[in-house]
Amino acid sequence: MSVWVWWTEAELNGTCLNIKGHSNLRAMAFPSTTQLKSLLETVVHQYGCVIEDIQVARAGAKSSVKIFVDSEVAVPTTLASATEVQPHEFTGPDLDAVEQLSRDISAELDRAEEQGQLNFGPGYTLEVGSAGASAPIVKPRHWVKNLGRLVKLPEGPLKGAKARVAQAAEDGVILIFKKGKELNVSLHSLEEVSGARVEIEFSKVPEAEQHLVGLQASAYDAMIDRR
């Protein structure tokens, strides 16, 4: 589920009014995503989050800044070093946290504009939220957060196949495929499965699959299909 909080120009303490009295701001360009990320990373980290993406759309007074955040999680460097974890123990930021974070981001942007670091021109709308379960899984952190979940794989030899995420690290992911009544465990590089998406399940996860999720890495050695 995505969580979003947004503020209009008026709610941003009069963003367009803040630039008055800063003559040097008129010559400055609308801030880039790189500038915004550098400025806001510290604020976001205080909430145990990371900046997932920043989208800037310039359209005069209708310009918008969208900031996607996600919870920060520890990612094993290698699958060999992965330890036992509980499925679904990683969650995204809740609505209250996102609401307060959005206020702090707004205040930081106002401060930067007043000091002449940024120029948003005639105003903008700020939106802060989480990407939600429908976002593509592309980073090691995404795979770790989705341990135990069913995913649909993207382009390539596995296109369209569904698998459950058993374990993940910076160097790869272990997936569980169900073929009839048989469960096959296989190892994949992150590049091979990048772009997978979570499949919403309405029934309980079968116990046989649950028992294979989040195990210590060595427990998979004898199970992995290396064909």
UniProtKB/TrEMBL annotation:
Keywords linked to the UniProt accession: Cytoplasm, Ribosome biogenesis
GO cellular component, one term: cytosol
Pfam families the record matches: RimP_N
Annotated ranges, domain Ribosome maturation factor RimP N-terminal: 39-133
InterPro entries: Ribosome_maturation_RimP, RimP_N, RimP_N_sf
Cellular compartments annotated: Cytoplasm
Keyword Cytoplasm included in the entry's annotation: yes
Entry's Gene Ontology BP terms: ribosomal small subunit assembly; translation
HAMAP family for this protein: RimP
Sequence similarity: Belongs to the RimP family.
Function according to Swiss-Prot or TrEMBL: Required for maturation of 30S ribosomal subunits.
Name of the protein this chain belongs to: Ribosome maturation factor RimP
The gene coding this protein: rimP
